[in-house]
């Protein structure tokens, strides 16, 4: 029996065809996942507006959008349901992108704003403004924004000596979170019941106070931050290979890292300022998007996943219990806590904990 004749050119061509087929299959899957997520977000958006304790028909909704005044319905839709849905959509997208940037940059699924202390910085600043200065509305949001940025900058500077990455930043952030949580608890014990109740609602993460003014400010911020995240994300893949490899590819490691960190922080900060610390959305969005895509998460997929989580949780929070409207953060917390425990157990079993 004669030995098979080797043909290097034929073998190389077959391997190249297999690689191209795999790439086409991957792109097809990514497009399908994006389409399904976009359809699900659209459906959740309109479910929040049309259904619930007060239902609105599609013809009436279109008439309201056209400017027609329908007694009762126009106010409920235009001043209640629609700004909440729009704000929830943008808040979820911002948290999704922020969490994915952190998790990819630090190469750790635990690296999200609500785990490493940034959301607690916003919370401490907001509660301080409520308790000591009697602030409300936009002033509380501004305090939360400044608090998140200040804590993020402190975490970055303290961890910079170790390269501002990996477990060093996470551990420093967890330390900040513990201290700031204690500060929030102390402040709540030093104020009256009414202020404490208002602060607790904000701390849970809620869309109840959503207005067109807040939605407009959030939209302006995202119009700047989302393109910035997209522009920097191309360098993110190089940083995933390690600092030395990225530097060898011509990437200015520290400036790019600082830009990514501050963009992610700003996204988390503006989302927190708009709706409070809606916990676990940033933590969940990236890993879920990655599993759906069968690989690394992308920023658009993470944004859509975050928006879907917030919109679905908002509808459940508003309609889960009769005559009771829960803060959206209560539902996202119930979803995120089991996922965090599962992730920790899985990480320890694989020897990476």
Automatic annotation (TrEMBL):
Record's CDD domains? TM_ABC_iron-siderophores_like
Please verify whether the record's keywords include Transmembrane helix.
yes
GO BP, one annotated term: siderophore-iron import into cell
Name a GO CC annotation attached to this entry.
Answer: plasma membrane
Principal location class? membrane
What InterPro entries is this protein classified in? ABC_BtuC-like, ABC_transptr_permease_BtuC
Compartments where found: Cell membrane
Keywords linked to the UniProt accession: Cell membrane, Membrane, Transmembrane, Transmembrane helix, Transport
The portions of this protein that span the membrane are 33-56, 85-106, 115-134, 140-158, 170-188, 258-284, 296-318, 324-344
* Xref: SUPFAM superfamilies: ABC transporter involved in vitamin B12 uptake, BtuC
- Please verify whether the record's keywords include Cell membrane: yes
According to the UniProt entry, its GO molecular function terms are:
transmembrane transporter activity
Membrane topology, as annotated, equals: Multi-pass membrane protein
Q: Which PANTHER family match?
A: FERRIC ENTEROBACTIN TRANSPORT SYSTEM PERMEASE PROTEIN, FERRIC ENTEROBACTIN TRANSPORT SYSTEM PERMEASE PROTEIN FEPG
State the family it belongs to.
Answer: Belongs to the binding-protein-dependent transport system permease family. FecCD subfamily.
State what protein this is by name.
Answer: Ferric enterobactin transport system permease protein FepG
Q: What species does this protein belong to? A: Arthrobacter saudimassiliensis
